[in-house]
TrEMBL record:
A Pfam family that the UniProt record links to this protein: zf-like
Domain Cysteine-rich small residue range list: 4-80
Protein's UniProt name: Zn-finger protein
InterPro entries: Zf-like (IPR007212)
Domain of life: Bacteria
Amino acid sequence: MSENYKFCQHKKCEFFPCHSGVKESEFNCLFCYCPLYMLKEECGGDYVMTNGIKDCSNCTKPHEPGGYEYIMSKMKLVIERGSNF
């Protein structure tokens, strides 16, 4: 069974790769805008808070191998939080 839906790259993007620390051949652009942003400290990523704004510049979780599975493991929590707005 193919699992191509878990990975995509956009090498023509002017920001590619937008984070360092992941081999270019493994860099996944699928979650360019991380759906875990809203989870704040519960996202589990490498971020810093700057003047109350979450800065994810140093986070590679969505872009590295296993990122799809990691993001999907947190989606139930995202959905729960989203239904509380």
